[in-house]
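just leaving the lab so this will be short. below you get a single protein, a line of residues and a line of whole numbers that encode the local backbone shape. id like you to explain what the token line says about the fold, in plain words if possible. thanks a lot i owe you, the record is right below:

…
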Amino acid sequence: MLQNSIIDYTNRHYQTPSWNHILAIRILEEKGETKVADTFIQKMGESTQPNSMQQWVIANYADDQAGMNNLEKEFVNNNYFMILKKLTEIKN
């Protein structure tokens, strides 16, 4: 199943910078597996050097609008990010 593949990928590569991690987090939330989502977020936050992509995923999960707005300034010209952002807004 595609959803499980996305979750498995995030589990193995949470330290790798990727906005796609928000997809795994959203899937877990929809399944009611918030503890697993919390664990992914905690792992990302504890990464040796969380980058701006990971920080955005963490801020998005925490519904930290100020944090997301600050980080999004770096990504405003990235079309993939803008599409992913719109998708997460639909789910919210």
